[in-house]
Amino acid sequence: MKQVPRLHVVLRRSRRTVVWFAVPTAATALLLWTLPWPWWVLLIADLVLVAWAFWVWRRLMPQGLPGGLEALTLDAERQLRLYFATGFANEATADASVSEEGIVAQVLGSTCLGDAFLTLVWRSEALHRLRRLERSQTLFLLPDMMSADDWRRLRVLLQHGREN
What we know:
By secondary structure, the protein is of the alpha+beta class. The chain is built from five helices and seven strands; from the N terminus they run βααββαβββαβα. Helix 1 runs antiparallel to helix 2 (39-60).
């Protein structure tokens, strides 16, 4: 059986995130103003919508943010290692397994692969045992966050990788 090499991807900031988050948020905020509500209710609804969109953006697109994801490594068994910027390990857990070596996680079957984007759903048993992350976590990845070859290889590994 041929050994499949691990894929290590260093993530870069994406310019497409503005399109994926700001445009639908702005369209929804404008659409709210067609409702027959008082202006102050519509303003509060818009502020809540913008706050929610910012929270989602920070959760799904942590690249370039303090404590954000800098790189990831994926192997053929869909074992994932996530490397975060300085600060995440100290905030999330004091466990030694979450240090410069990254967080070891398993890619879940609910990962969604598409041509324009992919949502990488993962769960770390070490963090789950520490009760820091009770549920699975999601990363939203776009093609411009990595080289075209890394994007292709990542999609192939996720699609054809062996599940435990």
